[in-house]
Amino acid sequence: MNETATANAAQPVDWFTFGTDQPAGWRVDYDSESLKLTGSSAYDSLSVAETDRWTVILDGRLHNNDALAGYIQSGNDTLPISDAELVGRAFDVIGTDIFAEIHGVFSVIIWDRTTDKLLAARDPLGIWPLFYYRKHNSLHLSTSLTLLKDIAEPPTSLNRPVLAIWVSNVWMSHDETPFEGIRRIPSQYYFVAERGDIALTRYWQPTSKDGKIDWLVSGNPAEFQKLLWEAVDGLSAHEGPNAIFLSGGLDSVSVAMIATDIARERGEPLPLALSVRMPGEDADESAVQTHGEEAWPPTTHHSLTTTNRT
């Protein structure tokens, strides 16, 4: 794999910026015979690993490294040194089921040389971006719209129908972007490129395939507490303070209290409290929000009063 290094962007990427001042991310250029990675992650979160069988490029953060290591560890095996290697070695064992097993916020690309397939996916909630553009006989994937727009031939135009839908506050198709010819890999699906064909396969859904829901029963509240703690811990930032939107209800206050305990345990800044206050007595929950703040004293509380109730 050829790799060209560029300087990390100093500011976080604004994935919804349509202009050309968007900070650089990374781009993968693929033509079935070679894979080239150019650029770097704006968050210093890019991990790359390679063997004779595969190349894995992972951007983001995994939340379940130990669980993934369970697929590959035996005897005196040690945990791989990078997230990309961990995903690649688990891919050796479980194939495309790996996408359903990765927990975290991420974009991942796997070039499987044995089948000549390029696979890609994002986290189920779509927090980490990933876009693609087809150019002649090559395929290009990137976390940045700008990096794909800059190589488009002929130069790509604004996708006016999508922009009209977007400014009208109407939900648009899950793979559309503001630029013609550039597509978004939808969350909850993994992308397969093989001999010029592209296919999407769903890897995650909120319920099981049979539609049954494994509801919490009275006998396992401790398991719920453990899972909730792991969920909040996994989504907590490590580079600075977290921010919690407080409604004043049980859910947001519970998440805020756990996030506070986690920050204290790590010796990190306490979370910030955020709240939105609506106009009108029937919609104003400021008293409840303030009560939640008193029960959980964060470092700073930010309140935004809006005049729009829609």
Give an overview in words.
The chain is an alpha+beta fold and 310 residues long. It has eight helices and 15 strands. The protein has helices at 65-69, 83-94, 98-101, 145-149, 160-167, 221-235, 250-266, 286-295, and strands spanning 2-4, 26-30, 35-39, 46-50, 54-62, 104-112, 117-122, 131-135, 138-142, 182-184, 189-194, 197-202, 243-245, 272-277, 301-305. The protein has a six-stranded mixed beta sheet with strand order 1-3-2-9-8-10. Strands 4-5-6-7-11-12 form a six-stranded antiparallel beta sheet. Strands 13-14-15 form a three-stranded parallel beta sheet. Helix 8 (286-295) links the parallel strand 14 and strand 15. Helix 6 crosses helix 7. The longest helix has 17 residues, at 250-266. It is globular and about 60 Å long.
Residue stretches low in confidence (pLDDT < 50, at least 5 long) are: 1-23
Q: Count helical runs.
A: 8
Characterize the largest beta sheet: strand count, sense, and whether it forms a barrel. Answer: 6 strands, mixed
Q: Over the alpha carbons, how many angstroms does the gyration radius reach? A: 22 Å
Mean pLDDT, all residues? 79
